[in-house]
Give the backbone structure.
Amino acid sequence: MGTYQNCSFTRLIVLIGFFCYTVGMTQAFANITIVIVIAAVLGIVARFLRQPTIVAYLVTGIVVGSVGVLTTGVRDVLHVMATIGITLLLFLVGLQMRFNTLRTISRAAVGLGLGQIALTAGIGFLAVKALGFSNLAALYIAFALTFSSTIIVVKLLSEKRDLQTLYGRIVVGYLIVQDVVAIFLLIFLAGFQQDPSSLNLFAFLITFAKSVVLFGIIIWLSQKVFPWIFERLARSRELLFVTSIAWALGLSLVVSSKYVGLSVEIGGFLAGIALAKSLEQFEIEAQLRPLRDFFIVIFFVVLGSSLVFGDMKSIILPAIVFSLFVLIIKPLVMLAIMGLLGFSRKTNLSTSITSTQVSEFSLILMAMGLSLRHVTNNDVSLITAVSIVTFIISTYAIQHTHALYEKIGKYLTMFEKKNITEEFALPAVMKGPIILVGAHRLGSHLLQTIDKQKLVVVDFDPEIVKRLQEQKYKVVFGDITDTDIQQHVHLDTAYLIVSTIPDLDDSLLLLKKIHELKKTWGKAPQIIVTAYTRWEAVECYRAGADYVVLPHFVGGKHLSSLIKGGRLDLPTMQNWRRHDEKLLQA
């Protein structure tokens, strides 16, 4: 990471074009193909075993790095592809940003981000010093252990479809705060020369001023220019696709140039923010997501291949200690701060678990420290080892947060205030014969047909909850897999539960609860769950679902019945369109 970060982004892109000429097409094609095939095979194995695919890609990097598949030229090209992946990932993150939605969690994001950095870096510095490191090296390592990975966390939360939940938005908020601090730290370090005591303060202030001006320009363009441009580009899907990529990579090139002095990551994020208000943002996101996923796979392969140790004996003990620090101390600090901010223990744990890894900025920070001779090769190898260990373990932890809460949730009351000030704290107990889990998209249609008095809605999107509260619905903010939520909505008294959340883990946990109710009381509500794929539907039926909704099946059946019945006349379709447009704008 550190090597290619210090190179000109332009030179990295040019390498792709000239690679086949300088290395030879056959060798380059064969080696890169081997890397991708190994990643695909291990990814399939991981998926079959229901393990995180990120782990498979990291293992791929370790394998190809150890057997000598990656020649110097191939490694350079993979570094370029990894950089593109990071840029596209943060571009899509910026594309989903809404400043008005971030207002509700700004206090939590800033407080959590800055508080966690200060406390974790302070405790980390003392821990590193206790192991005999110098003051300067301890400072670098402490900050490297403090930051968390935006790339991994956002990818995992996106796969879990948790980015729009309250804790998901808090996580994105505090990660942005961390990334901003990391960027300013890198800018600060860029003012140093070989002598650690020398600092070009004027250069730092100039770079900071450029950053402020650039951000202001991007915000102005996002409101005045880009919505108009991209509305016209949307007439051609191909042109919209190419232009979106060109904008993301082009702005990243400008931002990472010597004239601005920031990073390609920040450039990608700003490029996304510039298009966040355009009507085409969803189309852009849908088109770029598969491309982003491919390049992100390469990023993890490159990261795994970088695990080259110096003196193993000298770093194995610190690597174990620092890994435990990241996996245990960091989330405990987060739990404490979240508790003081007044959030519930479920929100506290879900947010804190996301901090159990080091950041890609940690690797960049250590690489810059090595170039400035502030740290040694062994120090860089140490943080690389910690990153691999924590990436793997935190991936499992984040994906199984619900199960973890089931086991340790009762012990987290010490991190929860008696009077929770969370914006959507649990209301009075609500009962209803029908419980709807998830009121977005599919759930929003059910709201139109079910009597409010018979319905209790459970949703974890703050905006949806606010809207339904204004419309006088009985609505509970939270996760239906949370035992506290289950008690408040009285699952045992309902006769029908409809879950429109297409998350297999959530569905299986809910089905398990219904099975326990049936076993205890001899009866349980009927339950309908939602799945995206056939194999997920089969798993839900095996777990006891009364019916599984497959959206494409339901849509196909409905359309077929309308065609057979001769009801697809133009006036009818126009009425449906007007009705659906109202729902889309709600």
Summary: The longest strand covers residues 455-459.
